[in-house]
Amino acid sequence: MIRQNTAPVTANDQTTALPRDPMQAAQQMLMLTEKLACLMDEENRALVSNDSIAFMAVQSEKELATIRYDAAATEFHAKAKNFKGRLTPDIINRLEKAQTELGRIARLNYNQMYKNDNREV
């Protein structure tokens, strides 16, 4: 019987390593970026509606997704020179769009948290 590791994922876990193949690495980076953006979007909806229960419900999953994303992004950037010319224009475009969307949602959340913090009670 194979026992699955249920310990929390950290930035040092091998589960965050990208595949060696540049296209597979880019696809995994895209998946991780989209997953984090989706969770941050859920967080944003909770912030806008001032729903602290929904906000807290997404935090642990978002934290794990952030750890995985950060580790993968660090590795992806370290390998970027090796990936040059080995990725399709489509995957590059999709990665850029996903990054832009993640940044947009992060700014929305930051601004909404600031707005909520400065709201009169």
Topology:
Blueprint: H1 22-48, H2 52-83, H3 89-117
Helix pairs in contact: 1-2, 1-3
Task: Explain what this protein looks like in three dimensions.
- There is one protein chain.
- By secondary structure, the chain is mostly helical.
- Helices cover 73% and strands 0% of the residues.
- The protein is built from three helices and no strands.
- Helix 1 packs parallel to helix 3.
- The protein is elongated.
- 17% of the residues are buried.
> What can be said about the biggest beta sheet?
none
The DSSP helix count reads 3
User: In percent, how much strand structure appears in the residues?
Assistant: under 5%
Helix content: over 70%
Q: Look at the helices and sheets and give the structural class.
A: mainly alpha
How many beta-strand runs?
Answer: 0
Name the helix and strand elements from N-terminus to C-terminus, one letter apiece. Answer: HHH
Ends distance: 56 Å
Ranges where pLDDT stays below 50 over 5 or more residues in a row are 1-13
The mean pLDDT is 87
Q: Nearest-angstrom radius of gyration?
A: 17 Å
Described by the principal axes of the CA atoms, the overall outline is elongated
